[in-house]
Design brief:
201 residues; alpha/beta; Rossmann fold; binds guanosine-5'-monophosphate; single chain; 5-stranded parallel β-sheet; 4-stranded mixed β-sheet
């Protein structure tokens, strides 16, 4: 069985990560998407257990106390956490695992799993990003202002990532992410070459 790989994707709020991730998952059916826990309310179309596990603050605290998270973080308003089980179970079955994390979570996961691959999805321009955030109509003006503050903080962290991919066209961006995953699997360091090319039977 091949060894599963962890892939971390981050990107500014409103950059279109959701669409890109969906297309990456469609292109690579064996890639497992790690479903995070969050205390924020579901957006229109989001499903419990598919996009997130939507839980209360109390349930989130209980899960912290039970040491169920590989990492967890608090943004201005909400908590997000990656369950250890969402990573370890699929990895032990040889599957690749895709995590969508903010920069704080990506940093924690990189420390825990140094051989993970981290990809930052960037907007074509900051003007395009602001227009998208305002245009999607899912956040209040206060929430947008908070998200723009987060963006300013996150931009200083991009250099910690292994790859940066611009999302001008979601399909192209998704194809680039798929290419990165395929290339990473071809790295010599990720392949067990012991006895692979021995002439002895
Ligand atoms: P949203 O509320 O837009 O779904 O996500 C807000 C931010 O939280 C995004 O940057 C997203 O990548 C991040 N995020 C989602 N799940 C997790 C998680 O489990 N851990 C961390 N650290 N960040 C997460």
């Amino acid at each position: 069985m091949g060894k599963g790989m962890l892939i971390v994707i981050s990107g500014f709020s409103g950059v279109g990560k959701g669409t890109v991730i969906k297309q990456v998952l469609d292109s690579l059916p064996s890639l497992y998407f790690s479903v995070s826990c969050t205390t924020r309310a579901p957006r229109f179309g989001e499903e419990n257990g598919v996009n997130y596990y939507f839980i209360t603050e109390e349930e989130f605290e209980r899960r912290i106390a039970r040491d169920e998270f590989a990492e967890h973080t608090r943004t201005f308003t909400n908590c997000y956490g990656t369950l250890k089980s969402e990573i370890d179970k699929p990895l032990s079955h040889g599957l690749d695992v895709l995590l969508e994390l903010n920069v704080v979570g990506a940093d924690s996961i990189k420390k825990l799993y140094p051989d993970c691959v981290s990809i930052f999805i960037a907007p074509p321009s900051m003007g395009a990003l602001r227009a998208r955030l305002e245009g999607r109509g899912t956040e209040t003006p206060e929430e947008i202002a908070r998200r723009l503050k987060e963006i300013a903080l996150e931009s200083g962290e991009i250099e910690k990532y292994d790859y940066i991919v611009t999302n001008s066209i979601a399909r192209t961006c998704a194809d680039e992410v798929v290419n990165i995953i395929r290339c990473e699997h071809m790295k010599v360091a990720r392949n067990d070459l012991k006895n692979k090319f021995s002439l002895e039977e």
